[in-house]
Specification:
about 140 residues; 5 helices; mainly alpha
């Protein structure tokens, strides 16, 4: 097995994508009820995307023993590509502008932090301790 566990990264990115859709639906309901103003939508979208990327990176790194940052970054990159492909399919526009790269940066930072948090979580430390490396005496 290499540094990055691609299978877990893809699965965690899918979970993050589903979480994003659920949170977007909740956000649209709050906007329809006039609880969230129209001017705050862009900020809420960035926050939802970062939360989902963090959770995706956390889920990936929680199941590996090392390289949490790299696994989190891989999850963030896969998550970004999934979002971008879905956006191109839905809007029929292919654009690469500053907003796209700013979104990529936010996603990579959030998923990288999630990867570090996942590898250092309390449950992960217990699991690592239980399945410790064999000691030779």
């Amino acid at each position: 097995m290499g540094i990055i566990d691609l299978k877990r990264a893809v699965i965690s990115s899918g979970v993050a994508l589903i979480l994003t859709f659920i949170l977007f639906i909740l956000c649209s309901l709050l906007t329809a009820l006039s609880i969230i103003g129209d001017g705050a939508i862009r900020t809420v979208v960035i926050i939802i995307t970062c939360i989902s990327a963090f959770i995706g990176g956390y889920l990936t790194a929680r199941n590996v023993y090392e390289y949490g940052l790299f696994n989190g970054l891989a999850t963030g990159l896969i998550y970004f590509l999934m979002l971008y492909v879905l956006s191109v399919i839905m809007t029929f526009t292919f654009a690469a502008n500053g907003e796209l790269f700013k979104g990529l940066l936010f996603i990579l930072i959030a998923s990288g932090i999630g990867g570090v948090a996942g590898i250092n979580s309390k449950a992960q430390r217990r699991r690592r301790k239980k399945a410790s490396y064999p000691r030779y005496r």
